[in-house]
Design goal:
Blueprint lengths: L31 H4 L4 H8 L3 H15 L3 H22 L8 H20 L3 H16 L7 H20 L3 H21 L1 H44 L6 H17 L3 H18 L5 H14 L6 H17 L3 H16 L4 H8 L3
């Protein structure tokens, strides 16, 4: 089988060169746990500071915590505590909150996203990113500096999330939008934003290179699949297992590229051949079926089939004592039911060009 073990080298909005550090004479940088003890009145006062001062202050706090997993965890908990105070005071939608406070809330979520990525806590990063984009979407026609900066930063981080899962086409879309936003900011304040614009432009090259390589790998997978299919058609029984693996691998590659309808075809074929060799459901069939269910969820016409399949697989996972797979299915269904993460894939329909 052809293996693709390359790792993309990406950046997040916490990168040292993304924004300049606050000047020594700037506002003091308190530890995040101290800010987390602020009263609501103190947080509202903080939100009324000039946005760049407030954002740089928070970002510096987060970067100071970006030294090890324990420090990152404490910092994330402090950020979450601050956000909880804002939500308790103004509700999840923040409809009655001043714009400055909503910007503070979105900035905190954006910084949490980057921090969770650095901690390799990808599910939490996705949730924080979706919450940040949802807040920004409520005033999606804004063109002011705070809005453009938060959106550019969160899209850079979402690009990293998609790159981690090898969804390079989506990552390319996000990083291109981030470049455009940073270019607009750099034209008004080159000293502050030109380095970020150059940094993200460089990262775009890596995303593009990996997307091209992914397409090349798909072509290689397809050739391998066709070779094993020919062997099976010529009566080589030993080729069945290799064909099943090839079909499944090609299906996963297609799914990563967002080509879910084609992926469904390959997962279905892999399962058909597997069932010829195995009369009972095993761990391999469970794994392939979960991937099929995930792709079925991506199309409106097959979404209900995906939900039904995954619910059926819950019982199979229990019978097989597949605790990790059972947990994955539960998480997939929970995310499907809430639809909270949908904005990570459809943000470009919300924010105008």
């Amino acid at each position: 089988m052809v293996k693709d073990n390359a790792k993309i080298q990406m950046i997040t909005s916490l990168d040292e060169d993304f924004l300049p550090a606050p000047a020594a004479e700037a506002l003091p940088v308190e530890p995040l746990d101290q800010i987390a003890r602020f009263s609501m009145e103190e947080l509202e006062s903080m939100a009324r500071l000039p946005f760049n001062d407030m954002y740089d202050r928070l970002r510096a706090c987060v970067r100071e915590a970006d030294v090890d997993d324990e420090s990152r965890h404490r910092a994330a908990m402090a950020l979450e505590e601050i956000n909880c105070k804002i939500v308790v005071a103004h509700g999840d939608d923040l409809v009655d909150a001043p714009r400055e406070l909503a910007d503070l809330h979105a900035a905190l979520l954006q910084l949490m996203t980057a921090l969770y990525i650095k901690s390799d806590r990808i599910d939490l990063a996705r949730r924080a990113a979706a919450r940040a984009l949802t807040i920004l979407s409520r005033t999606h026609k804004r063109r002011d500096e705070p809005f453009l900066l938060i959106l550019a930063a969160i899209l850079l981080d979402v690009a990293e999330l998609h790159a981690i899962s090898r969804q390079y086409k989506q990552a390319e879309r996000e990083i291109e939008k981030s470049i455009k936003l940073l270019g607009r900011l750099a034209s008004a304040d080159p000293d502050r934003y030109a380095p970020a614009h150059a940094l993200v432009t460089s990262a775009a090259t890596a995303v593009y290179r990996n997307r091209v390589r992914q397409a090349d790998m798909l072509a290689a997978y397809h050739e391998t699949t066709q070779n094993y299919l020919s062997e099976v058609n010529n009566g080589v029984d030993s080729a069945f297992d290799r064909l099943i693996e090839a079909l499944f691998t090609e299906g996963k590659a297609l799914a990563e590229m967002g080509r879910h309808r084609e992926a469904i075809t390959y997962f279905t074929r892999a399962l058909k051949y597997h069932k010829r060799l195995h009369s009972t459901v095993d761990m391999t069939q469970l794994a392939m079926s979960i991937e099929l269910g995930k792709s079925l969820l991506q199309a409106k016409s097959t979404r209900d089939k995906g939900i039904h399949l995954l619910n059926t697989l819950l019982h199979i996972a229990t019978r097989l004592k597949a605790a990790a797979e059972h947990r994955d299915i539960v998480n997939i269904l929970a995310a499907t039911g809430s639809r909270q993460l949908d904005i990570l894939d459809i943000w470009y329909k919300v924010f105008p060009r």
